[in-house]
Write a structure and sequence with these properties.
Pfam families: Ion_trans. It is a multi-pass membrane protein. One of its GO terms (cellular component) is endosome membrane. It contains 19 helices and two strands. It has a two-stranded antiparallel ribbon with strand order 1-2. The chain is flat and about 95 Å long. The termini are far apart.
């Protein structure tokens, strides 16, 4: 399990901590921890910021504060189980665990204050609730993506500093070139010049930002053309290339470490499981006992098929080289397939191919009712194929992890925006 979950081998349980280890790695524990984290996130829909009136989803302060405290207590219970399993030294030596404990203390104290006062106050720390979801077992891939993003920040910061430096130079140049034009409000001061060029980086104010200077002198277009070419097309593309290159390198290094960590865990397990007599392999009975602890939901038939998929040498015992594939083959799922299902899939693929051929040959010749109906059938087949392709792409774990990271970032910044700007009067603010 340490190899699969990327846990430290020092946390391997002893006879005294085995029950806590089994509890911390049980399916019920994972689901309970996930539900508590999701409830904490859902509370953002029911809490009323101090500067806003209650909406349709708002609930009394006592209710959402009590639910928040209950969810936090479940999270605390999970940390307590891991503390009993790992011990005080190993538990608090883990940086992520120590950070989440500190965040839990801050959020819990604020929830107690809200419950006692029976009134919401400025709580920007609510934006840290996604950390509890990220720390769950099911979000291990999300944690990995987030960690890689954080590790790739230093070269991004260097590029942002270079971008900021170039923008300052152009802002200063634009201020001295166009500040004497009273009709040009975009470059009336150095601060306005920098803000105008910063917005121009997104082309949101183009071409309005250059029109006052262009009306006065057509040669001013050179300044804006050079700025757009250097900053927008060159530096932004260079920033994207640096981010991609650094992120992929970190991703490769992480997968190498995960691969070696799994190999190390497999070797440790093999030393404990292989037989004493030559050829020193893992027999079927030992493998069956291992699977009863590793994945209790598997049936004996599935475990036997799993064993046979590993035992390519057909010796009846798994060698170390064969046992190295245990994590990859454990993802296999077995099911019975009847001949009728295979025929239906083949017929559908043939129908789709025939629809494509007929569409390209006949539909373009005449526009009749039959062709219109045939075209709709073809579009339906194309839709089915698109949905199948979409289902395959959804199975790409990395895309889902990135999507979850983006949604959690939206949640955090949304909470910060509500707390900071909900009391502002924005009516006619842009006039």
């Amino acid at each position: 399990m340490e190899g699969k979950n990327n846990d430290r081998f020092e946390t391997h349980p002893t006879s005294q901590t085995l029950r806590w280890y089994l509890l911390a790695n049980s399916q019920k524990f994972y689901v309970l921890e996930l539900m508590a984290a999701l409830i904490l996130l859902a509370l953002g829909l029911t809490e009323k910021p101090p500067a806003l009136k209650a909406n349709n989803l708002s609930v009394p302060v006592e209710v959402h504060a009590a639910v928040e405290i209950l969810s936090l207590m479940i999270v605390l219970a999970g940390r307590a189980v891991k503390l009993k399993w790992q011990g005080t030294k190993l538990f608090f030596s883990h940086k992520r665990t120590l950070f989440t404990v500190v965040i839990w203390c801050v959020v819990f104290v604020e929830a107690i204050v809200v419950l006692v006062r029976r009134e919401n106050h400025f709580r920007v720390t609510r934006s840290l609730r996604p950390l509890f979801l990220i720390d769950t077992h099911y979000c291990s891939g999300v944690r990995r993506v987030l960690r890689q993003i954080l590790l790739s920040l230093p070269p991004i910061l260097y590029m942002l500093f270079l971008l900021f430096f170039i923008m300052v130079i152009f802002a200063m140049l634009g201020f001295y070139l166009f500040s004497d034009n009273e009709k040009d409000q975009f470059f009336s001061s150095f601060g306005r010049s920098f803000i105008s060029l910063f917005v121009l980086l997104t082309t949101a104010n183009y071409p309005d930002v250059m029109m006052p200077a262009y009306i006065r002198s057509r040669w001013s277009v050179i300044y804006f053309a050079v700025y757009i070419a250097v900053v927008l097309y060159f530096l932004m593309s260079l920033l994207l290339a640096v981010v991609y290159d650094d992120f992929t390198n970190i991703l490769k290094d992480k997968f190498k470490k995960l691969f070696l960590h799994k190999r190390k865990g497999i070797r440790k397990a093999y030393k404990l499981l292989h037989g004493e007599n030559p050829p020193h392999g893992i027999p079927w009975e030992t493998f069956k006992g291992l699977m009863s602890h590793y994945d209790p939901k598997r049936t004996d038939v599935e475990n036997y098929l799993f064993f046979k998929s590993l035992n390519e040498s057909n010796t009846g015992q798994l060698s170390l080289d064969e046992f190295y594939n245990v994590f990859e083959n454990s993802e296999m799922r077995w099911k019975r397939v009847c001949l009728l299902n295979l025929l239906s899939v083949s017929l559908f693929e043939s129908l789709l191919l025939n629809c494509r051929i007929a569409f390209h040959l006949n539909l373009a010749n005449s526009l009749t009712l039959w062709n219109i109906v045939f075209f709709n059938i073809f579009q339906f087949c194309r839709l089915c194929e698109t949905l199948e392709t979409f289902a395959v792409s959804i199975q790409n774990d990395f895309s889902l992890r990135v999507a979850v990271v983006i949604l959690l970032m939206y949640y955090s910044f949304g909470i910060i925006g509500i707390e900071c700007f909900s009391g502002l009067e924005l009516k006619n603010c842009c006039v």
